[in-house]
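so my prof wants the structure for this chain in the tokens format not the other one, which i didnt know existed until like an hour ago. anyway here's the sequence
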Amino acid sequence: MKRIFLFALLLCAMASNAFAQTEIKFASLAPDGSTWMKTMRALGKEVSEKTGGKVTFKFYPGGVQGDEVDILRKIRIGQLHAGGFTGNGIGEILPAARVLEVPFLFHTEEELDAAVAAVQADLERGFEEKGFVLLGWSDVGFVHFFSKDRIQTSKDLMGKKVWMWQGDPLARSLFQSFGITPIPLSVQDVMTSLQTGMVDVVYASPLAAIALQWQTRTKYVTEQPVTYASGAVLLSKTAYNKLTADQQRILKSVAAKQLRDLTVQTRKDNDAAFATLKASGLTVTPFPSDAELGKMEAIGMKTRTQLTGTLYSKDLINRVETAVSKYRESE
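here's what i got, hopefully its the right format
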């Protein structure tokens, strides 16, 4: 009887293991139905299929779990397991990763790709040391100023009520270099603040601006981008370590493919979104001269210098700038 009892326990344990299921709770500010969330849902479906339903995703889009700082806090206490983050959230985990968003450096997406390749291994190790697994990058796109009044020079920002993502050290340093004091708010508060007049200048990629409907409360968009906004999908190491080796392999493989495809699609969608903005009646304002562009790049250089040693190391920014220079020389 004792042997039969032990055998029954073994069978129960094997059955429990065979049907064990891991649900990954994923949150993002990206609205449901957006390019980003469509990809994440496709990623979740593929992972579920390839693991026989043993690894599934539950999604919380559109900021229903709060701003990115709130999402991170919930991941750290185990209420959530993963998130899709923009630079602000990424920087809360690994400040050095903001080296990929320094202002007025990247002219093309290919330059950004060269920079990512130069520091990818360092950033992956950095995320792991902070308790996260980088499943892949998910571009947000080139970031432009959206405003109620025309902005064509750096002086045009003076006296404006400029929004800054609350707690973002890179944005704070940039606006300090411009000589202006921004108004810090969470993303969820921006639309209301545009409606009430609390802010009159915001910044976003074309696709993000449309997804958040900010273009409906502004009249102008700058032709010259301010920076390139990166995004990333990150999973807590605690949740990752609960997966079997085979499940980890499947998750990483599917995520790499889906997020690579997302980057390609996002870049196409941002181009289309910019055309939509112009067709909707927004006025595109170019900077008037090479001299003014030179001033913007000087502001970018000042910001990068201020952040060196605090946000990222001198070695890291040097490698990014070198990668961009080498790419330009090869063209």
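also thought this was worth mentioning. The first strand starts at residue 22 and ends at 28.
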